[in-house]
Amino acid sequence: MQDIRNIAVIAHVDHGKTTLVDKMMLAGKLFRDGQDNSGEVLDSNDLERERGITILSKNVSINWKGVKINILDTPGHSDFGGEVERVLNMADGCLLLVDAFEGPMPQTRFVLQKALQLGLKPVVVINKVDKPNCRPEEVYEMVFDLMCELNATEEQLNFPVVYGSAKNGWMGADWKKPTDNIEYLLDLILKEIPAPKQLEGTPQMLITSLDYSSYTGRIAVGRVHRGTLKDGQNVTICHRDGTQERTKIKELHTFEGMGHKKTDHVDSGDICAVIGLEKFEIGDTIADFDNPEPLPPIAVDEPTMSMLFTINDSPFFGKEGKFCTSRHISDRLSKELEKNLALRVRPMEGSMDKWIVSGRGVLHLSVLVETMRREGYELQVGQPQVIYKEIDGQKCEPIEELTINVPTDFSSKMIDMVTRRKGDLLGMDAEGDRVNITFEIPSRGIIGLRTNVLTASQGEAIMAHRFKDYQPFKGEIIRRTNGSMIALEAGTAYAYAIDKLQDRGKFFIDAGEEVYGGQVVGEHVHDNDLVINVTKAKQLTNVRASGSDEKARVIPKTEMSLEECLEYIKGDEYVEVTPKNIRMRKITLDHLERKRQNKD
Prior knowledge:
By secondary structure, this protein is of the alpha+beta class. It holds the Pfam family GTP_EFTU_D2.
């Protein structure tokens, strides 16, 4: 029997958990001597590296003093809560990582709550104590208060604390005395985190995540709950819907370092990968062949936002992407459902090429759209909509807890902005020259708020929000007050035309770009839509008088990211997403047709 510890790393976005895991891998000698390949090995996905956030949870294992430590990296955003809920099922304890200056943030609270409910033993790591004006003792008190609020047990409240700086590669018992390695933390994990209980009996394993290899197909990953799984063993898969299917394990792998290692048996408590099963989903149980006993499946919170996905039918259809048809998009969405637990997809009634896709928030859905776009898909998405529920005969909507951290000078602007969107102020805490403002706000109010908050605070605001509960409908919220500027006809945009129209609003296109009729090319200064002709060229005359020929001066276009576009569009607009471009357009492209519809 091998001695094992299973531990999940929990933290708010950007508090340094991926960096800490890298240092643990260095200490566990996963790289050759003198080699440091640790530059965020776990955030291996392009999107994760660009945004600096963890989206998919992953696991690695290290060997420390003869004990195998399985480390599970979890995402910090509550939008990826589906990932978190799966991963925590495999752990026996958690490493709660907190920034020594910022203290526990809303997203930390979300993941910690899930961990405490599952009865995991926490070890608190107060990271970044090398920062100027850090306050480790205060942060320790804040963590203790947070645990009390989340109903932690006596044993959980008796948590050990480690201070250190993951970036500089040290951890110790006292933040004023830096050490030169992180051995103190690893020894503490062996001492404090309980080893998994060895349960004898028929084998049981809950599938908590999927891996894919183009060589062997889909791989089931999970933790053996009871008994022993053997290579080549006959087993029964108990599906979530109650059906059972008999099958055989072709190969068993355990995690070693960042890869897999083939083994002939896995005992209870270890995390392994099972190869050769055909039909299975996350939440199914691998059980005994003769008398299978299923484990309870993973419970996942319901989605709160939905978006319409449809095929690209703009005049530029098929010019930039490889996969454009409804069959391609439908297959891709069903493939995503296999591993993305918090996602729901249903075809729209009466239509073959439209789907309603529901998820945890705008970020959750936009990461899916961005991933598809990079894989070569062309599609169009509609405005994000909140999912309403009827509770006791009342229309209810999702409410989020929103925290904005800004310099004190901007606090009144923030409060004004949020209260206009039906938000309620819950409290304000001053920390030096910055202030933490907490609100309750409908999810609808958060759509499009980030851009405005950053603009109003000159980029200083730090904004975080998490889903709280459903409450009665709060009334209408005024979203965007400005109208759109819409291209009249297809062609190339000319600097001459844009120059003459610049006082009408700001543009989203540059001179020389191809446009089509019905495309949203700018934002109008007034609240009505304006149809403009950006493809108008200058008529050449034979006048040669000086001064009759000014140069066109064009202000650079406003660049918008995918999330900003999704939050910007109105109900009668789509975002067209292709591998090379993101454009906004009216659903009805023809100018006269739109007029007719508005009259009706």
